[in-house]
Specification:
The structure is a single chain. The chain has 169 residues and is of the alpha/beta class. The chain has one domain: Alpha-Beta Complex (Maf protein), CATH 3.90.950.20. The chain has a five-stranded mixed sheet, sandwiched between helices. It is globular and about 40 Å long.
Length: 169
């Protein structure tokens, strides 16, 4: 049985609250669904500090302060780029955890050669992780939901691995 985004957000939120940790989010092709799942939980202000939808280079520069020289050798919708976004949103908001997603929701691929249904997701914090998701689908909305689900599952996994580590930035 697939868990709903609010269930996934609630599970991550409970772990964040329990550890007195905080989170910030940078997402792109999920369009805000990851942020929405985390703030849909009553009491989210105990752990959620903020998030951004970075959909353009202008947004990346203005909201995360990532300059062109920092992108040398990186391309969007890649694991290293997702890791940079997670680290930067975490740093900008001073949170324990940073979560990011970048990809191509569809119905076509992106200009970097990735097929629709491709996303890279990263967690920055006491436990670091990065994954690539390939849905094989061109269904934009379904991909957005899948990217958000995978992001929240990865976050929950990292939170569980972190145990009771009390880490704050």
């Amino acid at each position: 049985m697939t868990r709903s985004l609010s269930d996934l957000g609630g599970a991550a939120g409970a772990l964040l609250k329990e550890r007195q940790h905080s989170i910030s989010v940078s997402e792109s092709s999920a369009g805000g669904l990851i942020n929405a799942a985390l703030v849909s939980v009553p009491g989210a202000s105990a752990y959620y500090l903020g998030g951004v939808v970075v959909y353009t280079a202008a947004a990346r520069t203005a909201l995360l302060g990532i300059s062109m020289p920092e992108l040398t050798g990186l391309r969007s919708a890649s694991e290293p780029y997702a890791a940079l976004l997670a680290l930067r949103v975490r740093s900008k908001l001073g949170t324990t955890w940073g979560l990011s997603e970048t990809g191509a929701s569809g119905p076509s691929g992106n200009r970097y050669g990735d097929a629709p249904g491709h996303a890279c997701i990263a967690v920055s914090g006491p436990v670091e992780a990065v994954i690539t998701v390939e849905t094989g689908s061109a269904d934009r909305e379904a991909n957005m939901w899948e990217f958000a689900r995978h992001a929240l599952e990865l976050l929950e996994s990292c939170l569980r691995k972190s145990g009771s580590v009390s880490a704050r930035v």
